[in-house]
Amino acid sequence: MRTGDAAQRAGFDPLVPAALEDPDAVFVESGRIWMLYASGPDLPETSVPGIGAIIAQFPTGDTPGLVKRVAADGSQLIEFDGLFGISIEGLHELILSSPEGEAGLGRSAGSTLLWETDTLTLRLEVALPQPVAIEIASSFK
């Protein structure tokens, strides 16, 4: 699926990181747009074999779309480009919830940045040092 098709199905225009170019795969699930990037020399493999970056985004609202269970020593608040977020280093559990608030299946996830814009919540999972992940996050447009 292309990004434009995903926007139509999800009902919002996703942001795309200029630092990563076009995603290798895009899909929509429960109102969230997911973008996958294959691993390679500049994008090491995440906790998912063959995938170098996983991006999820959805409209910011009252119902959480992602639930993170994080150890206190594995996360920290960050600020970049006037936005606030959370950086989660290392493996942690990701649980997806439906728009109705029902928890779905979980999976082990790798280092992740979570942040909000005025209208979207974004999640970037990469196996790169935090400063590089923040550079990628800063390139979303």
Protein traits:
12% helix, single chain, 2 helices, 141 residues, mainly beta, 3-stranded antiparallel sheet
Structure characterization notes:
The chain has 2 helices and 10 strands, in the order αββββββββββα. The protein has helices at residues 3-10, 130-138, and strands at residues 25-29, 32-38, 51-59, 66-69, 75-80, 83-88, 92-97, 103-109, 112-116, 120-126. The strands form 2 sheets. A 7-stranded antiparallel beta sheet has the order 1-2-3-10-9-6-5, with helices on one face. The protein has one domain (3-138). Mean pLDDT is 80; it is low at 64-72. The longest helix is centred in the last third of the chain and has 9 residues, at 130-138. The chain has 141 residues and is mostly beta strands. Strand 1 (25-29) and strand 2 (32-38) form a beta hairpin.
